[in-house]
Design a protein that fits this description.
Length: about 300
C-alpha cells in the first residue's frame, strides 16, 4: 500500500507538468486539445537527439550526475528539448489551430487536434522507428527505504519529484507576482476586456503555447527516465493528463497539479485490487466521477 502510494506521487508529478500546459490552453482557447500529450513525445525524443549530440561533441558531459542515471549531457538536453517542443507547439498553433479558430468553432479545433495527434505520432514513429528507446542502458538499482513494509525508491524518481515541484513553484511565482502572469490570468478570464486594457491577445496565446510546450517537454523527459520511450507515449498519457485537468478544474494551475497527483495515486492504488491490464480504465472512472459530482472540477469555475 505505501509503495503504491509513493509510486503514485512520483507518477503524479509527471502528469501534473503535462496537465498544467493542457489546462492553460483549454482555459484560454476553450477547446480540448487531444494533441497536447504528443508534445511529451516530441520532448522525450528531442532529448535523445541532443543527448547524443552533446555527448559526442563534449565527451566529458557523458558523466553521470551523482547517483542519478541522468548525465550532464541529458540535463542540458532537457533545456534544448524545452525550446524545441515550445517552438513546435507554437508552430502547430500557427499552421493549424489559429487558422481553424478563425474560420471554425471550438468543436472543429477538437477534431483538428485529433488529426495533429495522429500526424505527430506517426511522424515520430517514422523518424525514430516503432521500437523502444532508453536514455541509458545501465541498470539503476532502487534504494531500500524500509523492509517492513518493503519500500523501494530510485534516485531518478526523487530527482523527478523534486524538479517537478521546483518548476511548479517557479510557475506559481511567475503567475502570481509578475506582470506577464497578471496578463495571462486577465486574458483567460475575459479576453475582450483584457484587449481593451491594452493586452495583446495574440502575444498571450503564443506565450501559453510556449509555456505549455516547455512543460510538456520536461514531463516527457521525466517520464522517459523511469519508463521506455516509444512513439506511443502520447497515446498512453493523453487520458491520465486529461483526467488530471478535469479533476483539478479547467483553467486552474493548482488544480492541474493536484489533479495529477490524484490520478497518479489512484491509478497505482487501483493495482492493489485490479489486474494491471485494467489500470488504464482508472482515468475514465475518475473523469466520469468528477463530471457527475462536480462538473467544473475541484478548483474550476463555471464559464459562460
Amino acid at each position: 500500500m505505501i509503495q503504491n502510494l509513493i509510486d503514485g506521487i512520483l507518477v503524479g508529478s509527471t502528469l501534473s507538468l503535462g496537465a498544467i500546459g493542457l489546462t492553460m490552453v483549454m482555459h484560454l482557447l476553450r477547446f480540448a486539445n487531444f494533441s497536447h500529450a504528443e508534445l511529451l513525445s516530441i520532448g522525450a525524443y528531442s532529448a535523445i537527439v541532443f543527448d547524443a549530440i552533446f555527448s559526442t561533441m563534449l565527451p566529458f558531459l557523458a558523466a553521470k550526475i551523482g547517483p542519478l542515471s541522468m548525465t550532464w549531457a541529458l540535463a542540458l538536453s532537457v533545456v534544448a528539448s524545452m525550446a524545441i517542443t515550445a517552438m513546435s507547439a507554437l508552430l502547430i498553433d500557427r499552421l493549424v489551430f489559429r487558422r481553424v479558430r478563425e474560420k471554425g468553432s471550438e468543436l472543429s479545433m477538437v477534431f483538428a487536434s485529433f488529426g495533429v495527434a495522429m500526424i505527430i505520432r506517426n511522424a515520430v514513429g517514422l523518424i525514430f522507428g516503432l521500437g523502444t528507446h532508453h536514455y541509458t542502458k545501465d541498470i539503476v538499482f532502487a534504494v531500500v527505504l524500509s523492509r517492513d513494509p518493503m519500500i523501494l525508491i530510485k534516485p531518478d524518481q526523487v530527482f523527478t519529484l523534486a524538479a517537478a515541484l521546483a518548476i511548479m513553484i517557479v510557475l506559481h511565482l511567475v503567475l502570481s507576482r509578475t506582470t506577464i502572469g497578471y496578463a495571462l490570468r486577465a486574458v483567460a478570464e475575459n479576453p475582450a476586456l483584457a484587449q481593451v486594457n491594452g493586452i495583446r491577445l495574440s502575444h498571450m496565446i503564443a506565450l501559453v503555447w510556449l509555456v505549455g510546450g516547455g512543460l510538456a517537454a520536461v514531463a516527457g523527459v521525466f517520464y522517459g527516465l523511469s519508463n521506455q520511450i516509444s512513439p506511443m507515449i502520447g497515446r498512453d498519457l493523453v487520458l491520465p493528463i486529461f483526467a488530471a485537468t478535469i479533476v483539478g478544474g479547467i483553467g486552474s494551475i493548482y488544480g492541474a497539479v493536484l489533479g495529477g497527483f490524484i490520478v497518479g495515486i489512484a491509478a497505482n492504488i487501483a493495482l492493489l485490487v485490479l489486474p494491471s491490464g485494467f489500470s488504464p480504465s482508472v482515468p475514465f472512472i475518475i473523469i466520469l466521477a468528477v463530471l457527475l459530482i462536480r462538473p467544473n472540477g475541484l478548483f474550476g469555475e463555471a464559464r459562460t
